[in-house]
DNA sequence: AGCACGCCGACT
DNA sequence: GTCGGCGTGCTC
């Protein structure tokens, strides 16, 4: 077994296969499947993953592995297989699949540089080159290019005076801090203490300390607790009484926080009924998918916690997915309170190093539970006992870059391997999941009542067209405004929700109707107030805000669209004494600011919490008795077959923030389309009727869950090219599918141009097409290289969530 | 993805 | 005649 099959870090069609390498003798026992290695590849050196060891290769002249990057494999057998599964099901490259399963810190960086060849002295080089090598023995290739030295360097390289070196940089940096620990046994320590001069009080203190706690201690900590200086330790180290060493520490994002340990709460009869089947599945080690459908505030989390408790008792591990976890610090707290140090947390708010450290805790089996966003589904546990996906309907569980996987599918795949249950929890399940539960593919568990038997909040829908007709041109209806004032008087709290998406502020000329568009993308520019700039959200193009219309020179430029900032201003004008906390991308950009704002609100430092999407979830504060949705229909008008579903879910979620505890809650939903069933039924919080109604629509329009979808998007700089290629693709696919399949397109994408590239797409609706996957692969094969560098890009998304 | 190899146009 | 454009094909 001295040959390794390696998947190399080159995401391209032609390299999407294993390459064989010889394992040098001295590495024979280090290199195993799942190890990252550095291998020579053509003239360069790159990173790769060993997938398999073997004795023979069909290749005769094998090159050798340069070195391993890991001492223990980063991918175990299960994850290697999962990677293959992922590749197959997302039509992406193997290397991308492996990389997505690991923390970003493990992805290699490459550096190309020039070094003085052995035996060459600087003076042999021509003057200007010698200059560059005088101080350092190496020169970064990019710098050389910038200085225009490439030609010269090539000559010198040919003459053998310099070498071009390719370096793989592991960006993993383990954090190390100086630690001090005794170098001798306690008896000797006592002896040493007696020998110290009586003035050496610092050294005495250190020895006394170690007599009580002989384990290594961080130097900085030791100095400050004993109130001594570095000198004492240095002299002790000199006498070899203590040792100072850099020891690895974990970056712990929750280090500053204290979590009070809490025990299980008593379950209600309903919760009890719901948890029994889950516990039984854990007990029998049977794979089963549960859909835990419980209204907001019905106590789903406690069911998760107690199921995990049982899994831990059996010596197994648990994965809990929550949507973008930094958004729900309350959730993390509950897990940490219950399971303490056994919990690792993974979310996008962590730095690469912190993520890597959390990942390593899992790999080293130091934790048993991971709570995290989408990518936590790949946590390298080896004895999984349960996977929980909270807010199952959330679209953020679908990754929108390659590999375009859905965490739910990965969860089920992994749970099958470990014969363990998956619990999907939601107050507003996705239609797909609920339909599966109806069909019996998932087991439905319902929690129809709130835990404390608190009624669901009373919801009032306000027709904003009516408000306009009566002359109210503000963004607050009379009703909502009165209620807000009322809450402030009663010292209760209000949550105001503004869905900005699809309605971002743009600038329009009131005389000629000119709207500023991005010159590279067919999309309107968004007005950013903080730097007075117009910005394109797709390519990053920025421009100044015009003072006169570029079309007609009119000065009547108007800002459209309502942002949270504007709402805040208007609110303060109307109720100057209101204390408002605003939460949006601008105010929560900094790390930890999200949590800070929420804590401030919880402590009653504000009357009103005003925010976007991010406040729709997980807020659970007793004093919130009013929720206002300023405009319910902004997302209803998006060109997306899920827009009704999303609207219903969002409105229901937001409404659920009110009256979760003793005080009853009220909700006011402002809308321009009160008659739409998703608004109306969110008002009565009637998921079942919404489900019926929406299923009807989906059936009529042939959308999921009745049909599967696949989306092919083609982009190129030339419109003609895009259209003709997409046409060919559509024809090809149609020819390979049965008559039941529907191929829509080619049509221009909802955003027809991004970054000067035209985009066309073709949507495939089907029920069962075993040939589809092969057909799509053929397309990718053909076009990805035919026009490879020429700029034709083709992306395939199986089960897309965003049809843009 | 990089990079080398190789085959055609505009220059000393 | 040579420098350099980027089209083509390979990397164990």
Secondary-structure topology with pairs:
Layout lengths: L2 E6 L9 E5 L13 E6 L2 E11 L8 E2 L2 E2 L8 H14 L3 H7 L8 E8 L10 H9 L2 E3 H6 L3 H9 L3 E8 L6 E7 L3 H10 L5 H12 L4 E2 H8 L3 H9 L3 E7 L20 H16 L4 E6 L5 H14 L3 E5 L7 H11 L3 E4 L5 H12 L5 E4 L11 E6 L17 H12 L3 E5 L4 H9 L3 E5 L10 E6 H6 L8 H13 L2 E5 L8 E4 L16 E3 L4 E3 L6 E3 L12 E4 L3 H11 L5 E4 L9 H10 L5 E4 L12 E6 L13 H13 L10 E6 L5 H7 L3 H14 L7 E9 L2 H18 L5 E13 L2 E10 L5 H15 L6 E6 L6
Parallel strand pairs: 2-5, 13-18, 13-19, 14-16, 14-17, 15-16, 17-18, 20-30, 21-28, 21-29, 27-28, 29-30
Antiparallel strand pairs: 1-2, 1-4, 3-4, 3-6, 7-8, 7-9, 10-11, 10-12, 22-26, 23-24, 24-25, 31-33, 31-34, 32-33
Helix pairs in contact: 1-2, 6-7, 10-11, 20-21, 21-22, 23-24
The structure holds a DNA duplex (12 and 12 nucleotides).
Description:
This protein is α/β, with parallel strands linked by helices and 804 residues long. The protein is built from 24 helices and 34 strands. The strands form 8 sheets. The protein has a 7-stranded parallel beta sheet with strand order 15-16-14-17-18-13-19, sandwiched between helices. Helix 21 (677-683) runs antiparallel to helix 22. The chain is globular and about 85 Å long. The protein starts with a strand and ends in a 6-residue tail after the last strand. The model has no long low-confidence stretch (mean pLDDT 86). The protein binds a DNA duplex (12 and 12 nucleotides) through residues 3, 5-6, 8-12, 14-15, 18-22, 39-44, 46, 57-63, 112, 789-790.
């Amino acid at each position: 077994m001295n040959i390794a099959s390696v998947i190399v870090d080159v995401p391209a069609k032609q390299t999407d296969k294993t390459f064989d390498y010889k394992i040098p003798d001295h590495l024979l026992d280090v290199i195993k499947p799942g190890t990252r290695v550095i291998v020579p590849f053509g003239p360069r050196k790159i990173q790769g993953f060993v997938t398999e060891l073997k004795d023979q290769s069909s290749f005769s002249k094998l090159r050798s592995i340069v070195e391993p990057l890991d001492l223990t494999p980063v991918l175990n057998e299960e994850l290697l297989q999962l990677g293959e599964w992922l590749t197959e099901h997302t039509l992406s490259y193997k290397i991308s699949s492996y990389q997505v399963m690991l923390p970003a810190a493990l992805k290699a960086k490459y550096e190309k540089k020039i070094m003085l060849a052995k035996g060459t002295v600087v003076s042999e080089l021509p003057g200007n080159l010698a200059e560059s090598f005088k101080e350092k023995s190496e020169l970064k290739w990019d710098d050389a290019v910038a200085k225009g030295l490439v030609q010269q360097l090539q000559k010198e390289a040919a003459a053998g005076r310099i070498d071009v070196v390719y370096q793989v940089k592991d960006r993993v940096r383990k954090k190390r801090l100086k630690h001090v620990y005794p170098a001798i046994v306690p008896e000797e320590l006592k002896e040493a203490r007696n020998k110290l001069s009586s003035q050496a009080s610092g050294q005495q203190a250190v020895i006394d300390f170690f007599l009580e706690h002989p384990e290594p201690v961080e130097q900085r900590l030791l100095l400050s607790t004993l109130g001594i200086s570095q000198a004492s330790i240095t002299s002790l180290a000199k006498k070899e009484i203590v040792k100072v060493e850099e020891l690895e520490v974990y970056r712990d994002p929750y280090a500053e926080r204290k979590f009070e340990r809490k025990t299980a709460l008593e379950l209600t009869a309903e919760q009890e009924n719901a948890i029994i089947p889950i516990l039984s599945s854990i007990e029998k080690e049977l794979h089963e998918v549960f859909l835990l459908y419980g209204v907001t505030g019905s106590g789903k989390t406690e069911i998760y916690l107690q199921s995990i408790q049982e899994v831990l008792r059996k010596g197994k591990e648990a994965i809990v997915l929550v949507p973008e976890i930094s958004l729900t610090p309350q959730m993390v707290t509950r897990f940490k309170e219950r399971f303490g140090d056994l919990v690792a947390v993974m979310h996008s708010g962590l730095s690469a190093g912190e993520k890597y450290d959390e990942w390593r805790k899992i790999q080293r089996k130091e934790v048993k539970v991971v709570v995290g966003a989408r990518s936590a589904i790949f946590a390298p546990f080896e004895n999984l006992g349960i996977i929980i996906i909270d807010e199952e309907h959330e679209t953020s569980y679908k990754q929108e870059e390659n590999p375009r996987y859905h965490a739910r599918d990965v969860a089920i795949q992994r749970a099958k391997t470990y014969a363990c249950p998956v619990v999907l929890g939601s107050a507003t399940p996705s239609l797909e999941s609920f339909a599966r539960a109806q069909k019996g593919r998932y087991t439905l568990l319902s929690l129809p009542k709130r835990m404390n038997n608190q009624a669901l909040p009373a919801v009032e829908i306000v027709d904003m067209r009516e408000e306009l007709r009566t002359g109210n041109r503000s963004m607050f209806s009379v009703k909502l405004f009165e209620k807000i004032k009322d809450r402030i008087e009663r010292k209760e709290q209000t949550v105001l929700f503004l869905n900005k998406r699809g309605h971002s502020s743009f600038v329009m000329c009131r005389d000629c109707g000119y709207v500023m568009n991005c010159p590279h993308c067919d999309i309107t520019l968004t007005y950013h107030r903080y730097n007075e700039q117009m910005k394109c959200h797709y390519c990053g193009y920025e421009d100044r805000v015009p003072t006169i219309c570029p079309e007609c020179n009119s000065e009547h430029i108007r800002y459209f669209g309502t942002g949270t900032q504007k709402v805040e201003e208007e609110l303060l004008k109307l109720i100057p004494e209101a204390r408002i906390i605003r939460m949006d991308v601008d105010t929560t950009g900094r790390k930890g600011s999200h949590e800070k704002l929420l804590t401030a609100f919880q402590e009653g430092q504000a009357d009103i919490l005003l925010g976007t999407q991010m406040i729709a979830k997980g807020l659970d504060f007793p004093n919130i008795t009013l929720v206002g949705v300023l405009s319910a229909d902004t997302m209803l008008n998006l060109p997306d077959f899920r827009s009704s579903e999303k609207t219903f879910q969002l409105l229901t979620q937001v409404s659920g923030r009110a009256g979760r505890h003793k005080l009853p809650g009220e909700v006011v939903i402002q809308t321009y389309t009160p008659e739409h069933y998703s608004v109306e039924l969110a008002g009565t919080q009637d998921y079942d009727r919404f489900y019926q109604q929406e299923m009807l629509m989906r059936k009529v329009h042939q959308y999921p869950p009745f049909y599967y979808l696949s989306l092919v998007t083609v982009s190129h700089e030339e419109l003609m090219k895009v259209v003709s290629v997409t046409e060919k693709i559509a024809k090809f696919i149609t020819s390979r599918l049965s008559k039941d399949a529907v191929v829509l397109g080619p049509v221009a994408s909802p955003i027809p141009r991004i970054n000067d590239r035209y985009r066309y797409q073709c949507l495939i609706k089907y029920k069962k097409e075993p040939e589809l996957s092969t057909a799509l692969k053929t397309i990718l094969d053909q076009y990805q290289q035919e026009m490879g560098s020429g700029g034709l890009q083709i992306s395939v998304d199986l089960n897309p969530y965003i049809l843009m």
